[in-house]
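User: structure tokens for Sucrose-phosphate synthase, please.
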Amino acid sequence: MAGNEWINGYLEAILDSGASAIEENKPPAPRERSDFNPTKYFVEEVVTGVDETDLHRTWIKVVATRNTRERSSRLENMCWRIWHLARKKKQLEMEDLQRVANRRWEREQGRKDVTEDMSEDLSEGEKGDSLGEPITLDSPRKKFQRNFSNIEVWSECNKEKKLYIVLISLHGLVRGENMELGRDSDTGGQIKYVVELARALAKMPGVYRVDLFTRQICSSEVDWSYGEPTEMLTTGAEDADSTDLGESSGAYIVRIPFGPRDKYLRKELLWPHIQEFVDGALAHIVNMSKALGEQIGAGQPVWPYVIHGHYADAGDTAALLSGALNVPMVLTGHSLGRNKLEQLLKQGRQSKEDINSTYRIMRRIEAEELSLDAAELVITSTKQEIEEQWGLYDGFDVKLEKVLRARARRGVNCHGRFMPRMAVIPPGMDFSSVVVQEDAAEADGDLASLTNTEGSSPKAIPSIWAEVMRFLTNPHKPMILALSRPDPKKNITTLLKAFGECRPLRELANLTLIMGNRDDIDEMSGGNASVLTTVLKLIDKYDLYGQVAFPKHHKQSDVPEIYRLAAKTKGVFINPAFIEPFGLTLIEAAAHGLPMVATKNGGPVDIHRALNNGLLVDPHDQQSIADALLKLVSEKNLWHECRKNGWRNIHLFSWPEHCRTYLTRVAACRMRHPQWQTDTPADELAAEESMNDSLKDVQDMSLRLSIDGQNMEHKILIFDKKVTDMPSKYPMLRRRRKLIVIALDCYDSRGFPDKKMIHIMQEIFKVNKLDPQNAKLTGFALSTAMPVSELTEFLKSGSIKINDFDALICGSGSEVYYPGTYTEENGKLYPDPDYASHIDYRWGSDGLKKTIWKLMNSSDDVKSGPSSIAIEHDAKSSNSHCLSYLIKDLSLAKKVDDMRQKLRMRGLRCHLMYCRNSTRMQVVPLLASRSQALRYLFVRWRLNVANMCVVLGETGDTDYEELIAGTHRTLIMKGVVEKGSEELLRSSGGYLRDDIVPVDSPLIAYTSGGVKAEEVAKALTQVSKAGGM
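Assistant: Done. Predicted tokens:
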């Protein structure tokens, strides 16, 4: 019995104080006690690593059990449960340590390879740029000042620019007014931030229009306003002339439908539908660019100045849109997947597989890696986010980024390596509702004059003031204010202990804890309930009744009044969190005249450096917290100085200042946009269209003219044929309304195209002839990994004319050809030069050749031997934007995921894939792919992706999945492609196919195994009706 009572007390201490109290309250070792008990031993030995806050509820129920025997049995079961949790956590920790060690080794190996590759073209004086040594050109401070001084700060001089900016925030409920912040985990601070950023940017000089893209939701679960296609946020700059405000100027929310139209989905379920959003957003941007060109661009399209993705899902989207349009991309992570994964693994409650199943965390991490590949600039709130969070990613290395930047500044070759720039730009705030008051008795410190109800006309006070003051015996004492969720990470219990154990502080001040809203603690989540229960116990332990306020409810509109109340009493705001990513409440408090005491871990360091309005403390040091609070509350001169400093510098966190810094940083990026003339010369185009339109009218109306009694039908047909076959400067794609893209990856065991593809193409051609009315409006394209020379020979072998296709996408998306248009004198096709320049961005073929050869032909497997060769260069299939290799030993081939990781760690950005039945590996530029080539055709020739139909097999090359989803229609032919290359795509533990491809989409149809024209036509009709094509 006594042993079980001891267990009860020990569990109570664990649950009240957490793991940090274990060492202090640890009982004597079990061997020193005469009444050794195995249960006690397990508790003593393993519970120190357990932080299972949801055990609290179980423990409450157990100790309330009246039956002594049952209670003892349950307590012992709890101890065994703790032991099991600790064992599981230890196992996960070992796996995590191994993973971190492997990653660290891979990182160092990558740095070593980069140093070797880049040291060849350095002079002796430049050898100091190695990754193992610091760059000694300038001190960090001088270097920063010099770099920033070279950047022209955004000002009124840019008023004539008239920029178009695109922001993207996909998940949650986004609207301009009456935002439902806190409705769910997806509708939080990020929503407020992006809406306010859009408004603020539209008011900046030189910005004409800002579009904030999000998801359109037409569901009974949410308000009807989320189904509106567009919503105006502001008309533009307040001081702009009427001539500057065009019909499309201002800031707008643009809602793009994607995924199930009638369902509101949490962000983890949006991943398979990302491609659909990209195509929808691209259509809006193309149309808007044309409209803006007519308004302010002298007839030429006004392309987005920058595309800015917020969070991982929008970052993935922005990367694809940036590649399709060839415009710069900016990324703000808000919160990062790798950081969350690390935290969840450290808790030891879930395995990596369980975490991935719940949060789709690996898909999120890959989206963030892709965003780093494409981003010119990454905006963070703090330096801590750069070093401790982005530093976890394959695509960003702080040391390598500094070296590459130094080399680029001196014009030294980086061999195609790139790291995005990181810029710390704190979030902006709207201070319009904040009234800065002077230091006068009437302004603050005279709460009695405001709350005095004696007399004929008492001053009304806000209701939240009354709610707070009812807890306090003397509400006129300075108020120490803490405002946060009751989360264990916010460290509220340490603050309460510091207050309770410091008598001078208790005598001088009150403590107010605003811990969210609650009705019943028992209905709250385990962690929050545990914190609130501990708070109540500590208040009782230190007898703090009348000195601590902890109201149950408050509205968002009450928060400014709470700050104002604390300022009236000459109080202090405190944020004691163990780690604070940014600390927006610190800025809000400073705006209302409150000095701060804040954690020294994370964002508050940067805020304190800017505002200089308080003290930083170690959140684990209870005495340090008490001393800092007492110092600010007792020393009035210091209090006034901190208050004035906060007010003096608070403008640094205003929206105009944020936008000014933002536009300055964006302007320093490498600007790029489509270089071609989208509108052809008017006279040539008019004549060409006029002639063809006339002929079309003749055919459509079946006009048959007679001259001198002779039937001219035959002559008209001959003339029509001559015009159709006549070489044109512009592809026929410009006149097509629909496009059927054949992308069947059908190859034999040697990687040669299967002859049955010829038959399939012929049947698909027949489908078009079955519908004469749309035959002239429908074109054909072929998308393949083969080079154009091999493809031409293959088509000739099947008696298929190459001019039957309007476009050929060859080399896994590295080249685009237009048969009958872009040809040399000898009839040989040459690739679209605009597409070549379009995908050239960040293409480092020299560095890739050397690195890929080294990585693929080096093996960690000792059995394979040093002479094993996995790949061999395939010159026949290579071109200026495609490195092709023959797979000599498939067992040595590394997965795409593994290769992508290694290349990213070395600063190399590309699109790598296995193709042609796993007999080839091809590497193309980051912006190139077969799916992105379709979007290029849309942007270049205005053939909407939604009017395309892509024909695929059931499997294919490793880029096959990218071709399935989108707004285009997809026809999957069963039984045509027997074997693809997808087994070489993903490593174990990575994201799944279901995270890329929607499981059930009305835009995807299947043939039942036949390839007859009638069956194909039937499937095409079905999918066209489903998508409204």
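User: Anything notable?

Assistant: The two ends are 77 Å apart (CA to CA).
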